[in-house]
């Protein structure tokens, strides 16, 4: 038995042990939420931006008119931002991350803020709304690419529809999704997903295949712990239909050292 299987078994056993002390999520409610997150095919084909492995994402080919990219959680990788700057002339790119002192790439259109994105405004954190107010006054469309290690839920819950509607395309890496099986976490996560689904629809999902991001099984439902979601604002969708297969031909593993995770059927099949 390889290390990956051992870690998955251990993680499932640990979660089952934790459920002895916490209230488990109702299976029907969990599946209903997952159904709402099923990706759809739209009138915009998907393209890959940011390279072949970690830092690369699939987004709708609907970039004309976007003039600002907000990218909190950059750490030391900015492949996505670099390629977006190459694709869109005059794009303004706003980066934020308190864990590093500067942008990992130099470009005249990059503006860096040493702060984390969160639910409050202080010396270390600021909200998404405050981030926008400080950096851009454009009335055109924005894009959001967010990988903030679990803070994404509180950010989404605390962001008004008026702010969410400023973003035509949103890419978010969601963490700790295995906690959906615990009712207390499920309620919190559901509130975040419900908020973004008010203004956007899911057009792609890709599980992260790194060793620490394993899937868990709960009453026949497989939940990858970390997944990349791409959203498109509803007014940009002129036609939509169901998707007939995963992975997408442009999908690549986040790390090439391991086989890619296939999106479980319950996350996309009707």
Q: Would you give an account of this structure?
A:
With 270 residues, the protein is α/β, with parallel strands linked by helices. It has one domain: 3-Layer(aba) Sandwich (Rossmann fold), CATH 3.40.50. The protein is built from 7 helices and 15 strands. It starts with a helix and ends in a 28-residue tail after the last strand. The model has no long low-confidence stretch (mean pLDDT 89).
CATH-defined topology: Rossmann fold
Largest β-sheet summary: 7 strands, mixed
Question: How many separate domains make up the residues?
Answer: 1
Could you name the CATH class?
Alpha Beta
Distance between the termini: 33 Å
Shape summary: globular
Strand content: 25-35%
**H-E order:** HHEEEEHEEEEHEHHEHEEEEE
Secondary structural class: alpha/beta
Total of helices: 7
What low-confidence regions span 5 or more consecutive residues with pLDDT below 50?
A: none
Strand arrangement, major sheet: 6-5-4-9-10-14-11
Number of strands: 15
CATH architecture descriptor: 3-Layer(aba) Sandwich
Compute the CA-based radius of gyration.
18 Å
């Amino acid at each position: 038995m390889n290390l990956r299987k051992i870690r998955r078994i251990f993680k499932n056993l640990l979660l089952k042990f934790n459920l002895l002390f916490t209230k488990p999520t109702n299976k029907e409610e969990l599946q209903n939420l997952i159904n709402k997150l099923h990706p759809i095919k739209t009138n915009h084909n998907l393209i890959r931006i940011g390279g072949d492995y970690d830092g690369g994402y699939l987004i709708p080919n609907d970039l004309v008119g976007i003039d600002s990219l907000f990218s909190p959680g950059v750490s030391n990788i900015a492949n996505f931002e670099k390629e977006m700057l190459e694709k869109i002339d005059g794009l303004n790119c706003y980066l934020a991350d308190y864990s590093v002192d500067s942008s990992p790439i130099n470009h005249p259109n990059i503006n860096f803020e040493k702060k984390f994105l969160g639910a409050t405004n202080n010396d270390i954190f600021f909200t998404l709304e405050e981030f926008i107010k400080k950096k851009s006054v454009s009335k055109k469309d924005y894009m959001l690419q967010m990988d903030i290690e679990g803070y994404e839920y509180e950010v989404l819950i605390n962001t008004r529809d008026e702010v969410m509607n400023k973003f035509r395309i949103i890419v978010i890496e969601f963490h700790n999704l295995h906690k959906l099986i615990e009712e207390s976490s499920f309620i919190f996560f559901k509130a975040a997903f419900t908020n973004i689904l008010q203004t956007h629809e899911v057009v792609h999902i890709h599980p992260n295949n790194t060793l620490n991001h394993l899937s868990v099984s709960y009453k026949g439902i497989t939940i990858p712990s970390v997944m990349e979601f791409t959203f498109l604002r509803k007014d940009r969708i002129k036609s939509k239909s169901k998707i007939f297969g995963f992975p997408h031909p442009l999908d690549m593993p986040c790390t090439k050292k391991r086989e890619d995770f296939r999106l479980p059927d319950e996350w996309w099949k009707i």
